[in-house]
Amino acid sequence: MTTQYSLAQVKEHNDNKSTWIVIHNEVYDVTPFLNEHPGGEEVLLEQAGKEASEAFEDVGHSSDARELMVKYKVGEIIPSERTEVKPKNTDWGVSDNKDSSSSQNSLKSWLIPIVLGIIATIVYRAYIQTS
User: What is the secondary structure of 15-49 as a DSSP string?
Assistant: First the structure.
């Protein structure tokens, strides 16, 4: 069984001697990783003792970084204090959704610049011919 911690317990581990963070309701002791973190130890210490999911996802960590996290996991947040885990956004603007409204929006995003370009070309050519 996985050890469960309250947010208050995690909050006690907020310095470079004991650095715990919460990412997606899982508790990590990143103290041994402080000196190895590519972004520097300050980045981890800013989140020490806190819920750091948003900060973690905002950076866009690689799959290697996510795999490395496993060895630092010490437990989970107790069920009554868990937050909703939002799926990470790896969309990069590509949609698997075949919804007609999304394809119409995609078409509009290209159609307007093309039409404006054609109009500008016609106006330019008309101006050159009259000169």
Answer: ETTEEEEEETTEEEE-GGGTTT-TT-HHHHHHHTT
| φ, ψ (nearest 5 deg) of residue 77 | -75, 145
Write the CB contacts of 13 (distance below 8 Å, at least 6 apart in sequence): 19, 20, 29, 48, 49
- The whole-model pTM stands at 0.65
Task: Per-residue pLDDT tens, the chain, 131 aa: give them.
Answer: 789 999 999 999 999 999 999 999 999 999 999 999 998 999 999 999 999 999 999 888 889 999 999 999 999 999 999 998 776 555 545 445 555 555 566 666 778 888 888 999 999 888 888 76
DSSP state of 50: S
> Per this entry, what is the length of the chain?
131
